[in-house]
Please model this.
Amino acid sequence: MKAVIFSFTQAGTALGCRVAAHLREAGWDVRQASLKKFAVVQEGVLPFTPNLHDEAARAFEAARLVVFVGAAGIAVRTIAPFIRHKDLDPAVLVIDEKGQFVIPILSGHIGGANAIARRLAEALEGQAVVTTATDVNALFAVDEWAARQGLRLSSLRDAKAFAAAMLEKGAAGVYSDFPLQGPLPPGLVYAFHGDAGLVITTKAHVPVFRTTVVARPVIVHIGIGCRKGTMAKDIAYWVNAVLQRANLSPAAIA
Model:
C-alpha cells in the first residue's frame, strides 16, 4: 500500500515525518515530499519532483493514500484536476501543521479515508473531522463496509439511494444467502422486504426491497476447456448461458 505525504512549511514537514512514521508502522510504503528548502533538513523527505502538480498526478495514479499537511485550500486546488470517480480515487486527508485536525476530503468510505483519519488523529492526539452523513448520524455506511469485506456493490448509485433511505428511516433490512458473522452493523435488521435493504448474494436476480443495494462476494470461478480455433464470442455465449441457468451474476466472478 503506497502513501504520499505533502507539506509546505518547516513545521508541516516535521509533522509529516511523524505521520509517515505512524503510517510505516501500519504497513504503508510512504513517500514524503516538500519544498526543497525543507526537504534538505529532514531525513527521508524528498523535494517536489519536478513540482507539486506532477507529484500529485503520480500519487493519484499509484497511491492509495495522499496526505496534505497544510491548508485545505492547497489540497483542493492540487487534487482537482486528478479526481476521477469515488471508486477509483485514493483516500485524501488534510492535516493542519499543528496536528489539531485530521480531515478526510476524498474517498472517505470506499478508500477508507474516514477510518485512517480517526487512527491518525488518535496517534497525533488531535481530532478527526468526519463530515459524511452516515458517520455524523452514526449509521451504517454500505460502501465502506463492502470495501472492507471485499464485496462488489451493484452500483454506487444504488449505494447512494440506500444511504439516503437509511438517513430518512434510521434503519434498513438485510437479506443474505450466506451466514453473517457477529452482530449486524447498527441500523440493520434481518428482513425479506421493506423500504430499504441490503442483499448479499451471488445471484443475478434477487429479492428486492423498495430501495435495494446488492453486495456480491467475488467467489465464483469458471473453468473452460475448448478446442483450438474456438471463437471468443462462442465461449462468452456458453459462459453467459451457464450463468443464466444457475442464476449467477457476472459480478460474482473472481
In short: Residues 2-131 form a domain with the Rossmann fold fold (CATH 3.40.50.11220). The two ends are 21 Å apart (CA to CA). The chain has a mean pLDDT of 93.
